[in-house]
Amino acid sequence: MPPPPPPLPSPSSSGDEATSSSPEPEAGPAPPPTPPPTPPGDVSDENQSRDSATNTPNCPFLLQGHCPSGQACLFVHDEFVAWLQERQELTLPEIDTPPAQSQDTTPQVAPLIETNGAAVGAATGAAVGAAAVPAAVPAAVPAYGAAAIATYGAAARAVREAAAIVAAEAAAVAAARAAAEAAKANPPYVRRPQIVGSTCRSVAVSWPKPGRVAILGYGSLDMAKDECSKFNGHSIPAGQRKKVCGHEVAAILSSAARPAEAPQTTRVSHQVAVFFGPSVQTTDEKLRRSIRKNLTPTPRHVRMGEYSATEGETIAAVRSLLAAIAPLELFQVQQDSTKTRLEATAWFPDLVAALEASRLDKTCLSFCAEAELSVRVHNINDTCSFRCHKRR
Q: Where is this region: Disordered (predicted)?
């Protein structure tokens, strides 16, 4: 007759034996513990069992990636982190802190981002169980990673995402530093050394300053020609020039305007354009009144024209003419309000370009007929005589 089966243990003793006797861990990593079902009973007993560090089960939600309760969760998170570290799913290298006297005081490239008043680096270390941020990356973790760690606990997914973002930022900073060092070592341009004391490549350019224009209308062509000759000094006695308002002027005979373009009062008159020099410091209204009062014969009409050109326009035009020959190394303009001419000095790469620029002498600007250029090559002195003769 077979022996009777052993008696079943009581419910109270089975829980103690289950908690006291645990199987020995195997060689491989143990599976994550699952929380046992909570038996119905007194609420005080349930709270007392959860408060105990030995009886509180691990959080089952962390196995899925996050815990919805966060820090308010009644289950244990630290043991689950230890289990993840055993499986090598959560590995953060510890920082190697140098001695106090040899610490690098160089400021970090990325600033330390703070979330809810707490540093992200400290929040990361506290969440993963005093694990430090690697020293190879800047001490700045994105706010997204810190918020995820603070909300969901030490979830492996949140930690891995934060570490990946930090690594990407560190790579971008390293690439920017490498590009800056390369640009500093090999600049994109090389400055050409200037030869001190040498003027063998320079030319001196001057042209008259632009002035104002007055259009005088006469009743006949012969009268207009006669007045134009008097203004330019071609009348008898030779050399005497007729002045306007006490100033010598230059005059040209304007072509007759077509009826559709000329004003009503000038369709039957012949025009003479009178150019005033820049030394005439007066208004257009005063010039018009003075011409009508003092000029004999009195023209039928007097019309003050606009400036033929401004100083800035003439300077830009002269520089363009010189730069069309060869690239200019330097172009300087000496502006003096007391003079009636503008003076400039241009430096060319070689003497050949400077000699080519001297051919612009007595050239007028296309939009300013009275601006005749005077271009002179430098005088060879003792400083550059050897270099100039050698290049020739």
A: 1-57
Q: Residue 123: in which H helix or E strand, if any?
A: helix 120-127
Residue 68's pLDDT is what? Answer: 77
Query: pTM for the full model?
Result: 0.35
- Asked if 272 contacts 218 with a C-beta cutoff of 8 angstroms, the reply is yes
The tokens for 280 are: 């005439």
Cα distances from 349 to residues 148, 194, 346, in angstroms, run 65, 10, 10
Sign of CA dihedral 51, 56, 62, 67: negative
What is the tens place of the pLDDT at every residue in 43-73? 445 444 444 444 566 777 766 667 777 777 8
User: Per residue in 291-323, pLDDT tens?
Assistant: 888 788 888 888 887 666 778 888 999 999 999
Report whether the peptide linkage leading into residue 68 is cis, meaning its omega lies within 30 degrees of zero. Answer: no
Could you tell me the sign of the dihedral formed by the alpha carbons of 73, 79, 82, 83, in that order? negative
Residue 213 three-state SS: strand
- pLDDT number for residue 331: 92
Domains along the sequence of the chain with CATH: 48-96+110-187 (no CATH), 202-206+310-391 (3.30.70.330), 211-305 (3.30.70)
Handedness of CA 64, 65, 67, 68 (dihedral sign): negative
Which residue reads 């008259």 in tokens?
208
Beta carbons of 305 and 215 less than 8 angstroms apart: yes
The 3-state DSSP class for residue 293 equals helix
- Taking Cα atoms as reference points, which of 140, 142, 146 lies closest to residue 110? 140
